[in-house]
Amino acid sequence: MRHSQNDRAHSCPKIADLFAGVGGFSLGAARAGFDVAIAIDLDKHAVAAHKKNFPFAKHPRRNIANLTGNDLLRAANIGEEKLIGIVGGPPCQGFSTMGHRRKNDKRNPLFLHFLRLVAELRPLFFVAENVPGILASKYASLRRDALKLVSQDYHVVGPLTLCASDYGAATVRSRVFFVGIAKRCGVKLSPKDFSHSASNQKNPVKTAFAGLTPSVRSTWQTEKSSWRRVKESNGKYFVAINRFCESVGDPGAVERFVEKLEVSGFFGTEHRADIIKRFALVPAGKMDKTSKFPRLSWNGLCPTLRAGTDSSRGSYQAVRPIHPDKDRVITPREAARLQGFPDWFQFSPTKWHSFRQIGNSISPLVAEAVLNVIRCKLFSGAS
């Protein structure tokens, strides 16, 4: 039974998701027992997709740099005492080793603004996620200035480098986390708390793709044509990623999944004949020398999925892995499976923005594991 908004609002502690994107952090938080009261992002496509999946959250399009703590509370329509936590992944492109790593990238200070809002609102905890590149020595002063904002009121654990494959996702995506617990809570966290929540069992590409049709037509270019049936599986991965969560999910998408096992995101890609021939020569686990696209291996893990650039930075397409058997790049739904998103989870109705949203997102499996640790520490004994 899916409870009403009021049921969840009264039973779950509230959090804010900043730089929320499509909602990987939000989904992990909801599954860990938190209520996502507000999700803020500046990208209109991300906001639209997040609204579909989290219909009861507030969704202001705001620039975090210009946002005050009071602005956030007003937009969320809650009081300061009800905001338990703040989570988010400030834009990482300026820090990424895949990009130019510009020290003066205008997005870099958003990490500081994230912690400024934490300092203003003083929730019980915060979690900030970013790429490993943020640990480079050139950003030492930025990290120091940002963490200084919360050092008086919070015990900070991190930087912690966590790999998505250690938490069940079929990708080697590594990310850095800074976790803070308010000193007034009287509890502390250690890096061991998070390493203990990791799993020794890896889920390879074969496990992640179970039940997905490998035969994707290049003509499937519209959102309507991207809906296809999947096969139900009793495997642990299929069951784990497709768990439902109260008040989360687009009702129409959930209904199609439950009643017909229909899911979206099977967008095809039209490759030229010479590219198809070139892809055919790439062995599993190797890379196409021209495009630099890697071919996935059924028994291996996917490399880090990337987002590409937005229109303000040239709209460059990110590297998209080649299917293990088929001579084509993977679909957004296949990418979502690799990251650990549910089949009923909705992305943009366009292929371009779907890939960007998945590539920009934290794996919800990692987010859930991290936030489960925090919830257990703060509310031991709570169900």
Describe this structure in words.
- Strand 1, helix 2 and strand 2 form a beta-alpha-beta unit.
- The protein has a domain at 5-200 and 363-378: Rossmann fold.
- 31% of the residues lie in helices and 12% in strands.
- The chain has 14 helices and 8 strands.
- The protein has helices at residues 5-11, 24-31, 44-53, 69-76, 110-121, 140-148, 191-195, 205-208, 236-241, 251-260, 273-280, 332-339, 351-360, 364-378; strands at residues 14-18, 35-40, 83-88, 125-130, 154-163, 174-182, 228-229, 262-263.
- The chain is α/β, with parallel strands linked by helices and 383 residues long.
- It has a 6-stranded mixed sheet, with helices on both faces.
- The longest helix is centred in the C-terminal third of the chain and has 15 residues, at 364-378.
Shape: globular
Q: Tell me the Rg in angstroms.
A: 20 Å
Work out the number of β strands. Answer: 8
Reported for the largest beta sheet, the result is: 6 strands, mixed
> From the 3D coordinates, which CATH architecture of the domain at 5-200 and 363-378 would you assign?
3-Layer(aba) Sandwich
Mean pLDDT: 89
Q: What is the straight-line distance between the termini?
A: 18 Å
Q: Main sheet: which strands, in order across? A: 2-1-3-4-6-5
Work out the helix count. Answer: 14
Ranges where pLDDT stays below 50 over 5 or more residues in a row are 95-101, 309-315
* Percent helix: 25-40%
